[in-house]
């Protein structure tokens, strides 16, 4: 049975429910901008579990929780018993008896589902290997802010088509009726199970999976993500060789034939040499930018950082929907 109090994956929700969350996020952003207090969940306690690193998701849950009047406790993976000495099920029962809601970022989707099943409180998926649903509300919120509507939009995701971001964008676009094209080399295209889910939940979008970069023609937005995701053990060189033709650069933008196109990225991004990994890759392979060139990143940085800020407003809406008392 779908647990609607939790927010575990996009397919648990209808188009109307996701649109309601997007609109609520925009309302919360307005309250914050006008500095109108909204401590609607005063006195509640939430726990944030992170088994992988995070800047945006952790900050967004922390600030959103505090803005809503809640007490927020961070539980880093190295500091709690989870996984090493205690099962997810037992951890869920303990945390559920003390906290009113739990955020979880980890590896297996099954773990966040187990946490929700046994904790008895709302659980929010802060990213697993399979889905990144809170990112979706921020992304489609950003699109709605930019274009005024989601109706009739066409988007393309280019790069690693087998990761959480590609999965979530494909399925969420289908639910919302936004045309989506996933552009990846054949070996990195979404798994059939994910494609089937997108078709099963489609409300009228055109869904395209291709290895042809020319498929960006006419799209309103191009999205990309890192070429190697957290927790993946793959040969970086192999990924670079496969994905370099799928980099977002000025040639790719020209292929859209749309001078109003925007570019989005969930971040973090490898677009310059100001990171340790970026410098390592440069030393080993001579590449100073990976999934997006610095030129393109800077050109669209207003939208990309608006998208990052929107993580906070949208996570606030997601937690409020779960915890509000009717
Ligand atoms: N986009 C995103 O989830 O960023 P973090 O990994 O910094 O949370
Ligand atoms: N696909 C990336 C997303 C980061 C927000 C990862 O899982 O590392």
Automatic annotation (TrEMBL):
| Keywords, sorted A to Z | Cytoplasm, Transferase
- Binding residues for L-ornithine, per the UniProt record? 164, 225, 229-230
Give TM regions: none
Q: Give the protein's recorded name.
A: Ornithine carbamoyltransferase
What SUPFAM superfamilies would the database entry show?
Aspartate/ornithine carbamoyltransferase
Which PANTHER family does the protein's record reference? ORNITHINE CARBAMOYLTRANSFERASE, CATABOLIC, ORNITHINE CARBAMOYLTRANSFERASE, MITOCHONDRIAL
Reactions performed catalytically: carbamoyl phosphate + L-ornithine = L-citrulline + phosphate + H(+)
Residue ranges occupied by any Aspartate/ornithine carbamoyltransferase Asp/Orn-binding domain in the UniProt entry? 151-320
Mind telling me which Gene3D superfamilies this protein's record contains? Answer: Aspartate/ornithine carbamoyltransferase
Q: What is its EC number?
A: 2.1.3.3
Q: Which residues form the Aspartate/ornithine carbamoyltransferase carbamoyl-P binding domain?
A: 7-145
